[in-house]
Amino acid sequence: MEQLQLLWVARSCVTPQSGVKAHTHPYYHMIYIETGVCSMVAGDQHHSLKQGQCILIPPHTEHSYSNETPVTVDYLEIKFTAANSIPLRISDSALAGSLFRQIVQEYPLLGRLADKPAAAYMAALLCAISEPDRLKEAACFQYVDASAFGELARNVIRYLEAHYQQDLRLDDIAAAIGHNKSYLCVAFKKDTGFTILDCLNTIRIRRAAELIVYSDHGFAQVADMCGFASVTHFNRVFLKYVGITPGQCRRAYPANILFGIPEAPATRSSRFMYSVLAHKTITPKMIRDLGLSENNEEK
Question: Which of 61, 67, 248, 264 can pair with 14 through a Cys bridge, CB separation 3.0 to 4.6 Å?
Fold first, then answer.
């Protein structure tokens, strides 16, 4: 995270039946509970923080905390500034806890020499506690940009992305989504402009292309990992959708080609591979261009 600056790193405690009165400050304040239970009020929200949980309090947010138990609460705290705005968050991420402890352990030993590594740890820590927000925003779509579709189509794509390695049939998909097969196919095509089969095949070859470029797996293993019935089937579908064979793809697109590929590749295969190498989701238009849906029939 750019312009992140640590101000204060410490180990602290709240003795039984005591606490810190309501206050604000112009920087972020993070607290990680090592032992005990701490009662926290931040803004208009009340939280009971337990061992292994941390809270991020934004600047100028009034907050107070107290220990209403007979056991001392031990906690770690970090105060910092950041250029970007970060909302109040609570996390019980084990990774966040490990990073928090690493910062508190290392920073006092090295002093200002620890600024850069501590800032890197902090960036990772903030990333760890924001994971639920990122997953919610992404809506679990890894390969297909489904942001413009209705809930039914999104549910289908979500299911395809989670199960593309399996031998999927429309009956299985319809049963999982909870709709009649014929209705599902018509509704999906009407909403997206392409068929369920095209979407499934695009997801499969999108993943296959990643494996071809970045892994050392043979094509038989790639085909199996991506849900194709055989290498022959894999080769045929890959050629149809991408315009080149898997072998041509591996020779033409080594992993480092991203640094030389233009922003707007001219050919269909180049556009597809650019999206793979740039880790972009496949757009609806690209699926329609790749799949030539008007020639495909759902089975």
Answer: 67
**CB count in 10 Å sphere of residue 296:** 16
Per-residue pLDDT, 280: 72
SS3 assignment, position 45: strand
95: enclosing H helix or E strand: helix 94-110
User: CATH code for 151-295?
Assistant: 1.10.10.60
CATH topology of domain 5-136: Jelly Rolls (2.60.120)
pLDDT tens digits for 164-204?
A: 999 999 999 999 999 999 999 999 999 999 999 999 999 99
The DSSP-derived string for 140-185 is T-SSB--TTS-HHHHHHHHHHHHHTTS---HHHHHHHHTS-HHHHH
Kindly state the tokens that stand for 286. 């690209």
- What are 55-112's pLDDT values in tens digits? 999 999 999 999 999 999 999 999 999 888 889 999 999 999 999 999 988 877 766 5
* C-alpha to C-alpha distance for 16 and 20, rounded to whole angstroms: 12
Cβ atoms of 286 and 272 within 8 Å: the answer is yes
Closest-CA residue to 157 (of 190, 133, 188): 188
* Residue corresponding to tokens 């095949």: 201
